[in-house]
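Tokens for chain A. Residues wanted.
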């Protein structure tokens, strides 16, 4: 119950223990208490109404934040991505010029991607160069003896399977697409040896698609920085990145991430203590703290 203080006609109302309990239990009750009790003036009533209104705003904001935080995608990720994009552009932007795109024909990009599966980038570059000395079109590839093809791509690993896929996809391109690489993702993925990653690379490099190809470097860097969960497959990582990176920046961002992943955020022994992104990287901070604790 609210009572008027004895010493002053305009002093604060005293709220009884019962009423306080009600206030904590249910905010609706505080309105009831304040409205139905003989408050000293309209001034106090107005003040408490304002306080309650603020409480409502604060609680609503908290609720919205809780809902956002409970999702995979958090608003904080946007700020973090802004920092990452600025860092990547500053350090690697000059290495990802337009010349990189369309350097090879769509067919060469496609074949290089098949060769890149489960091998290092150096092997892909070496075997692609050797193979493209022998054949650069589906017609030439189909006419190339299998033994020669296998020898050219031997150091890319799994060379027998890769040779088989390259031969088979070349034949399909001739038979069904007039010797051209389709720019449709579903059609690309029907080709032998072509999955999510390969199709994304072909679309991005050869057809100006705003897709972000998620290779091993982009995948690792994204997860370490906390933009994707460890359990996410490459498609999930791609979707999460594309929510945060505008269309016009996607191509360059993915190339910059690859450079960063090769040089700093390496698969083994990433250079976290030298990394400018350490302060926003959960993986890096955890790693550095563990090393400090173990005295390494
Ligand atoms: S702090 Fe380490 S793990 Fe994080 S982005 Fe940098 S190098 Fe990679």
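Reply:
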């Amino acid at each position: 119950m609210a009572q008027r203080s004895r010493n002053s006609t305009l002093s604060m109302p005293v709220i009884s223990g019962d009423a306080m309990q009600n206030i904590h239990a249910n905010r609706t009750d505080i309105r009831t208490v304040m409205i139905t009790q003989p408050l000293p003036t309209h001034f106090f009533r107005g003040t408490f109404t304002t306080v309650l209104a603020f409480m409502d705003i604060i609680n609503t904001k908290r609720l919205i934040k809780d809902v956002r935080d409970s999702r995979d995608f958090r608003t904080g990720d946007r700020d973090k991505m802004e920092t990452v994009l600025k860092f990547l552009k500053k350090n690697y932007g000059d290495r990802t010029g337009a010349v990189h795109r369309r350097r090879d024909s769509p067919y060469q990009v496609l074949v290089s991607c098949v060769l890149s599966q489960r091998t290092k980038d150096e092997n892909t570059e070496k075997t692609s160069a050797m193979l493209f000395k022998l054949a650069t079109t589906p017609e030439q590839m189909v006419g190339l003896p299998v033994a020669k093809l296998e020898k050219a791509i031997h150091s890319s690993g799994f060379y027998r399977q890769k040779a088989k896929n390259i031969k088979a996809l070349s034949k399909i391109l001739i038979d069904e697409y007039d010797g051209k690489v389709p720019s449709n993702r579903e059609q690309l993925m029907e080709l032998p040896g072509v999955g999510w990653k390969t199709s994304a690379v072909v679309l991005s490099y050869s057809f100006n698609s705003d897709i972000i190809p998620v290779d091993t470097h982009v995948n690792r860097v994204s997860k370490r920085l906390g933009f994707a969960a460890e359990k996410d497959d490459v498609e999930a990582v791609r979707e999460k990145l594309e929510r945060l990176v505008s269309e016009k920046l996607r191509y360059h961002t993915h190339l910059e991430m690859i450079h960063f992943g090769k040089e700093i955020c390496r698969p083994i022994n990433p250079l976290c203590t030298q990394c400018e992104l350490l302060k926003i990287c959960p993986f890096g901070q955890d790693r550095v703290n563990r090393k400090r604790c173990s005295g390494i």
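Residues 42-70 form the longest helix (29 residues). The two ends are 64 Å apart (CA to CA).
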